[in-house]
Amino acid sequence: MRDVAVVSFVQSAVARDAEHNEVEMLVPTLHAAVAESGIPKQDIAFVCSGSLDYLQGGPFAFVSGLDAVGAWPPLRESHVEMDAAWALYEAWVAIQTGEVDSALVYGFGKSSPGDLHEIMTLQYDPYYVVPLWPSMVDMSALQARAYLDASGRGEDDLAEVAARAQRNGRSNPYAVRAGDLSAGDVRARPVTHDPLRDDDIAPITDGTAAVVIAAGDLARSVCERPAWIRGIEHRIEAHSLGVRDLTTSESTRAAGAAAGVANGKVDVAELHAQFSHEELILAEALGLGGDTAINPSGGPLASNPVMSAGLIRVGEVARRIWSGEAGRGVAHATSGPCLQQNLVCVLEGGGN
Amino acid sequence: MAGNRVAVVGIGQTHHRAARKDVSMAGLVREAAIEALEDAGMTWSDIDAVVIGKAPDMFEGVAMPELYLADALGAVGKPMMRVHTAGSVGGSTSIVAAKLVAAGIHERVLTVAYEKQSESNATWGLSVPMPFAAPLVAGAGGYFAPLIRAYMYRSGAPRNTGHLVAVKDRLAALRNPKAHLHLPDIDLKTVEESFLLWDPLRYLDVCPSSDGAMAMVLGSEQVADASAGSVAWVHGMAMRSEPTMFARRDQINPQAGKDCAKDVYAQAGITNPRDDFDCAEVYVPFSWYEPMWLENLGFCAEGDGWKLTQDGATAPDGDIPWNPSGGVLSSNPIGASGMVRFGEAAQQVRGRAGDYQVELKTGKALGHAYGGGSQFFSMWVVGSDKP
């Protein structure tokens, strides 16, 4: 495998951007990501993005998104209808073939104009589940209850996760929900989807993210301390909640094992947990212990721009490696109801 | 071509129909996938990863359907990806899957593309009113007809050129049992007398709306060498994209298409496509796109595409058959149509195209797909011999 590193990362996120469309939101993010990479735009050989048509409410969200790139002269370009973390995977694969040495990867989406939780209902089995119209929060509440029952944990544990996310969010300029909150403060608020409270559910966020990745010497030439991708793996599970064990995340465990999470100390982990209980399930599946800082950015419970929130996890780990704050970290992204599909990326500074 | 060698070791496709009411979406993709696995002599457990592609989710009303289809495609416990690059997606999906093998990450990848158009209506699915955008409510045909008129003006092509393609591809489809349209009585007169949709496109100049799926198993050199049946080696693959519109953009003969062809020909050692290929499976959803893409893909000089069509060069018995399977004009499960082109090109060089098999001389064929406003291109060159 070729050595590939994340060399730049830019994001934007607000609770509701009523003034800009997706392309207008993307332009500054992409330009800044390219500028910060130190690689001239014309030398970035591959572009890959992640977006969701149903979020935009039109059939070709990525086509207009491409206008923010300025695809002229014509580009080697591709798109996944998945979180942009999978666009990162596709770009990493393209570099592994030797065809290209660098790539720009981005994701974008506005959740505020529609009803995100009901739009996501359209992901479910169209014949047997969608007619019941459960929202993604309804589904996740079932998982949360199953997890609490199986693990012996309680709502206090969920509240601890929710409160820490908002406290960590205070140092994140892109947090749309942050504050000096205690678990007790969270517990004092009403349960909206038993056993979940609003603080246990990721906030509605409009936003974008972009990273530039580069191979070997190119990465070294533009970045003092590149964040090397040591492993990037993803797995999917069965779709129906009825045939999965919702109290664990087998696909996260398998992806984490294949990516080599356990091959060293994990200083920092950024987990794409859109609900408090998901963070607990994911940390267990990845074998993360007390010496790992989990979601120091506040994670998706503080800022959740859908379709880029997974890629942002990679960026948040990478920038802590560039700064020397972390030597080794794990980024996680998810897709589908109740953690159906999961990607794990291990990043390291130094070494080469 | 960058990376390790890749070969197509199994191919399967559904019978394409206006409405496959006998199967769910999961049943549709499974039908193609099972045939591809059987062709490859494999079972679900042999597959390392699954890459699925389709055009906009609004064509069926299922968001990110790879999630719902994971079980049906045997992907549980494996990596699965979902590609969406508009009409070119069937080609792009094949390329994303092939790169997983070329990069040395996987040995055997199942790739599937589908559309079940009967679940919805593609023309209206393409015409959702968006804030601050002029609602064209035109569908794809309304978008492309003005570009075709510009081509006619630019090239001076005779007005019946499109109709010739419409007849040629439908007659070719009579030899393809899986094609959606079988119109044995079609001739120039019936095309000319079919009703006008978007000038100059008449009803029979236009592709049908189909339910269908295509699947391929892609293997490493080791897998291909061990394969009992014939395989198609990938000699080159490329993708290019450009913006939908800006001043100076040539929408008739797009630069991205020319660049993509140049790239894939260089990888495969193609210097004269008309001579170097035994056939081409090219994304021609509207009849006039045959002469237009003949020029864009360098099969002739710019302005001469219609002459090849008029001379019969692109007919099954011509010197460079285009779409011997009947093409998109005979079957159009949109998201799958690009992969059908890639797969049909592979079947030809495997010698497995049945009644529509072309004579193999160079043993090389081109698979092509395009999408968006003639702005997304994906192509591959496949060959009988190991590159």
In short:
The complex is a heterodimer of chains A (352) and B (387). Chain A has helices at 22-37, 53-56, 61-69, 84-96, 116-119, 136-151, 155-169, 183-187, 216-222, 250-259, 276-285, 309-322; strands at 4-14, 46-50, 77-80, 102-110, 191-193, 196-197, 206-215, 227-236, 268-270, 293-294, 328-335, 341-348. With 352 residues, chain A is α/β, with parallel strands linked by helices.
Can you offer a commentary on this structure?
Helix content of chain A is 35%, strand content 21%. Chain A is of the alpha/beta class and 352 residues long. In chain A, helix 1 crosses helix 3, helix 4 crosses helix 12 and helix 7 crosses helix 11. Chain B has a domain at 6-122 and 208-225: 3-Layer(aba) Sandwich (Peroxisomal Thiolase, Chain A, domain 1), CATH 3.40.47.10. Chain B is globular. The N and C termini of chain B lie close together (9 Å). The relative contact order of chain B is 0.20. Classes of the chains: A alpha/beta (352), B alpha/beta (387). The interface between A and B is large, with 62 and 63 residues.
